[in-house]
Specification:
Distance between the termini: 59 Å
Order of helices and strands: HHEEHHHHHHHHHHHH
CATH superfamily: MetI-like
Strand content: under 5%
Helix content: over 70%
Largest sheet: 2 strands, antiparallel
CATH class: Mainly Alpha
Strand order of the largest sheet: 1-2
CATH topology: MetI-like fold
Radius of gyration: 24 Å
Number of strands: 2
Length: 297
């Protein structure tokens, strides 16, 4: 029996081995290799040249990189605030007992999330085309516009469109997350509040919202991580360079153009680690802020 036990104990390692092999080969190794490349000058073809901290010194002084940080934050904030607010309100409404067909509505809201971001970017670029786009044609037909507007030639409208697309794609997903968070709250708490004379507005502010804090934290942090890495929409919406006036040149788009269009892999790797540091610091700050006891209490 001892020998059989010793022999079968090793089977567990066999079953978890695929995960660790995949993690080491496809995640850990690229992370470490990218960190090594960030200390080199390399065009992807010729021999690497070790340059030490030169790429990071350049990154600190790079005005374009700072502009991409601002662009990324503006696009993310402009979509995440209305996204969260609407998602919470929809989740509360859909959990109201008199609402029928709530599952159907949640499915409809989630549909945009199933479409690839690249496809949506191409779709909106066609809709907003100033010569043949359907938006201009509709607005002119109903008399709102007298002549076509070049929407994608305006930094304001281009950023707004990018944020609108992000909001439209993800508010359904956030609604489902908050819906699950509300369902996890015990009905006993609401019944006790009703017995004490609380109305729906008071139960929302004093019970629902405070007890949704872990869900808000999860949704905000994941949205931050995804929002800081936005690439598909800015890449396909205009010329792939973040124009007009580099208004939608995000950090990842700048990384992509530096590495794969200009063949500067060393500096591109440094940009990726700059992005990592920004996401890490922002995530810690948001975690501390959302978990403050005084936030809801």
């Amino acid at each position: 029996m001892k020998r059989l036990k010793i022999k079968t104990e090793g089977y567990g390692y066999f079953f978890i081995a695929p995960y660790f092999i995949t993690f080491l080969v496809l995640q850990l190794y690229p992370i470490l290799y990218t960190f090594f490349i960030s200390f080199t000058k390399w065009d992807g073809m010729t021999k690497m040249t070790f340059v030490g901290l030169e790429n990071y010194n350049r990154l600190i002084r790079d005005d374009v990189f700072y502009k991409t940080i601002g662009n990324t934050w503006i696009i993310w904030i402009a979509n995440v605030i209305p996204q969260m607010v609407l998602a919470v309100l929809l989740a509360v409404v859909l959990n109201y007992k008199k609402i029928k067909g709530s599952d159907f509505f949640k499915s409809i809201f989630y549909l945009p999330n199933l479409v690839t971001a690249t496809s949506i970017g191409v779709l909106f670029s066609v809709i907003l085309d100033w010569q043949t786009g359907s938006l201009n044609r509709i607005l002119i037909a109903i008399g709102i516009l007298k002549q076509p507007v070049n929407w994608l030639n305006s930094p304001f409208y281009t950023r707004g469109t990018t944020s609108l697309i992000q909001w439209w794609m993800w508010f359904g997903y956030s609604t489902i997350i908050f819906d699950a968070g509300i369902k996890a709250i015990s009905n006993d708490i609401y019944e006790a509040a009703i017995v004490d004379g609380a109305n729906r507005r008071q139960t929302f502010w004093k019970i629902t919202l405070p007890l949704l804090r872990p869900t808000v934290l999860y949704s905000t942090i994941t949205s931050l991580i995804g929002g800081m890495q936005i690439f598909d929409i800015p890449m396909t919406l205009t010329d792939g360079l973040g124009n007009p006036q580099q208004s939608i040149l995000t950090m990842v788009l700048y990384l992509y153009n530096t590495s794969f269009k200009r063949n500067n892999y060393g500096y591109g790797a440094a940009i990726s680690y700059g992005l990592f540091v920004i996401i890490l610091i922002a995530s810690i700050i948001l975690f501390k802020f959302i978990n403050r006891k005084s936030l809801y209490d």
